[in-house]
Amino acid sequence: MPIQRNNILKSIYKWRYKHISQKTFIYILSVIVGLLAGLASVTLKNITYFIEASLEKGIIFSSNQLYFILPIIGLTLVYLYVKYIHKEKLKHAVSSILFSLSRNKANIDAKQMYTQLIIAPLTVGFGGSVGLLGPAVATGAALSSNLGKLFHINSKTRSLLIACASAGAISSIFQSPIAAIIFAVEVFSLDLTMISMLPLLLASISGVLTSYFFMGNENLFNFTITEPFEVKDTLFYILLGVGTAVASIYFTKMYFGIINLFKPLKSPKYRLLVGGLAIGIMLYTIPPLYGEGFSFINDLLIGDHIKALGKTPFDAYIGNIWVVIALLIGITIFKAVAMTTTLAAGGAGGIFIPTMVMGSALGNVVAKLINNSGLGFSVSESNFTLIGMAGLIAGVQHAPLTAIFLIAEITGGYALFVPLMITASISYIITKNTVDYTIYTRELAESGDLLTHNKDHAVLTIMNIDMVIETNFKIVHPDMTLGEMLHDSVAKSTRNIFPVVDVNHMFLGIILLDDIREFMFDTKLYNTTKVETFTHKAPDHIYYGLDSMQIVMQKFQDSGAWNLPVVKNGKYMGFVSKSKLLTAYRRELIKFTK
Fold this sequence. Notes:
Largest sheet: 4 strands, mixed
Strand order of the largest sheet: 1-6-5-4
Membrane topology: Multi-pass membrane protein
Subcellular location: Membrane
Shape: elongated
Structural class: mainly alpha
Number of domains: 3
Protein name: Chloride channel protein, CIC family
Radius of gyration: 29 Å
Distance between the termini: 39 Å
Order of helices and strands: HHHHHHHHHHHHHHHHHHHHEHEEHEHEEH
Helix content: 55-70%
Strand content: under 5%
Keywords: Chloride, Chloride channel, Ion channel, Ion transport, Membrane, Transmembrane, Transmembrane helix, Transport
Number of helices: 24
Pfam families: CBS (PF00571), Voltage_CLC (PF00654)
Number of strands: 6
CATH architecture of the largest domain: Orthogonal Bundle
């Protein structure tokens, strides 16, 4: 059977190389990738909705008290799947994709093609306060990566196909093809050229058509703008921009704070139990934190905050607008807590949609505060709800253009384009100047694994120390005599630098040919002078597995050296020369910009 399969694939390869150009083939693959990502998105949504509907209609979900139980059940099912079937630690969907682009040549494990389709619906369907966009993007990325490997596509083109998959997934979920393309550019640091534009466009169209085919004209947000932007409200939109910036900073810091809080709990079972109970308590008090939260956003958009808040312990006071405002503030604060707790407890999901939920609550709160301030001001609560979402997306994701075009597309027009730009840009500027990296990128940036739009930085990120390390240096020992060194090392070496190591191969220092040149022909010193006499410290060290290529380049610049030793746990590994480093850099830069 494998032989027959290989023969079929060989026939396909031959036919393709003979009849289809590389450019045309990429266009075809981008359409297929968009279709697959769209199918993954639809599948994720349908499985999740089925679980939620089954729980809502069944006996299990008969009262709020069972909010305590459901998250623990969902997290337990995810834990069992990961432990006995997946057998690998779960990683954040988008962060793992960014890592594969920078360090793994756009190779993604085949298991990721179906893992998120199982664990994400279990997490969200049973009450986990996370989104499905991240899992949809991860599934589409894995499908595109493995499809690219199947057809022997190079790593750079596979990276483009992964970006196409993300565009297809977003386009399918939100039915917003333009925002989907912009997301791929902003989040995956893709260079938007005509070479990449057309595949992204084709994938985005393919994704949205898949959504229309399977879901019809059903929109996530059934809302049409009826109140246009008024210039007199500009100050309030600036205020909302500042508010969403503060909320974005809070969201990011809370995420890493809770993740660090769970780190002492080494056992996944303890994390599951603590996290599940914490989520249950939050859901009992604030029911809209359950699941993704699209119904909450829709209820706010149509002005029905009573339905949006659902049944809470504070129902007796819900007629007081200030109680409503307080509950909405609670959602704004605790959505980030509930989302991060779900992920820290072992759940699977994304942060994009929780960001939107938090933004919608904050925008609605700001509008209600303005309208009930007693100062005679009146603004559109639905418009502020929408623009609050854009402000949080721009701040948390560092993706202002995605935020602007996404909200513009899902509302069916550009009537709010000006306030969207005001709020999103202010939120982005303040957040970016306060928090350098997003939830997706912080850990990657700290480890030097983050690709950016800066070509120099991106090329250095793609490179690794194994590409430039040289090992053809003759080592010497400190107790060797000068004569032994000249006979065993200098005479047999083509290099002018000699690493000094002990019997355990621990790096002690270096000797340059210039250090011994004046003594080389003094035979009286051959047996009386030891190597340790000439040994001195290297200008700097490169730490294998710890130093990124950016750090390596900086060390060469600061030290002024032409060769630097590479050590690992104190042991000598080799040398990196500045000339080889620059040659490798230029070669990768040419590849990167083709």
